[in-house]
């Protein structure tokens, strides 16, 4: 899913969410000719009825008003804040990004594509009635809500952004048709301060519908992969989703300026491959919708990570050791006056990690985090902790 106009989602020159990250990603996708391996399409912006699947009418009206006159943004709705400054055309750009994710979900559900990627999406913090954390409309929640509207009975959402996927969890807190799983830096040390293992869904029908793995700051490749594989595959095998929706924020990377994990590009690629394999193993027909998310090392990390994602989804994976085309590095310098990375790896491929069943250490903080998540959520789903 691509439309050049998504780069209009622009909070201003001093904001860390620089839309150049989207343009450079698409440039790298083209440099590897992945646009010839996958169909590149655009969807229309999400309309009022689609936005209302998740967002309140008064909030959508507030976004429209701030979009028309940014000086009149209502901070009661999270608009015009440091995190979410209002800008002209904000509604249009946000609705367009949401429309791409909804369009991706529709294409996968209808069998027009087995996999679909919207790396401009993954804006997982937006709430039904407010903007938050650089997110105006929650395209991930809207895509899931559209799948439910089309008749899906089981949708799994897996979020590996460094920040908790709080907006998606909130949207489906009491809906047993949706399983949300988030692996993120511990809420003690990072925004939004939620995503504790004890957050498991609403009492009653929603119990066990939310799973949270709160990782200690400093977690690196081995621990991150260990945690993912200790939780996600077993949950998906049990839930048997008809569609798998994943969010691939690149801000877990050790170079990211806004967080404290120490994950490499190579581990991010490994999780992308795992999500692809899990979709084929557990989602009907391999139905997979993959979204972007956070990521503020906008030259060195984000374009490489999401180009890997596109290649994996297109069944044309980019080799980690491949030399990045000089045409793209020229583009990077022309747009940013920075030198782009030279290869599609951080030099850690393949990443070594130990399975959860191998060498559990009760004194290890990572293992404690995994066990806390399993103990809180797994028994609610009839699984052993």
From TrEMBL:
What are its GO biological-process terms?
Answer: acetoin catabolic process; epigenetic regulation of gene expression
Transmembrane helix recorded as keyword:
no
SUPFAM superfamilies attached to this UniProt entry: Arginase/deacetylase
Which molecular function term from Gene Ontology is one that the record holds? histone deacetylase activity
Keyword Transcription regulation among record annotations: no
- Which Pfam families has this protein been placed in? Hist_deacetyl (PF00850)
Stated name of the protein: Acetoin utilization protein AcuC
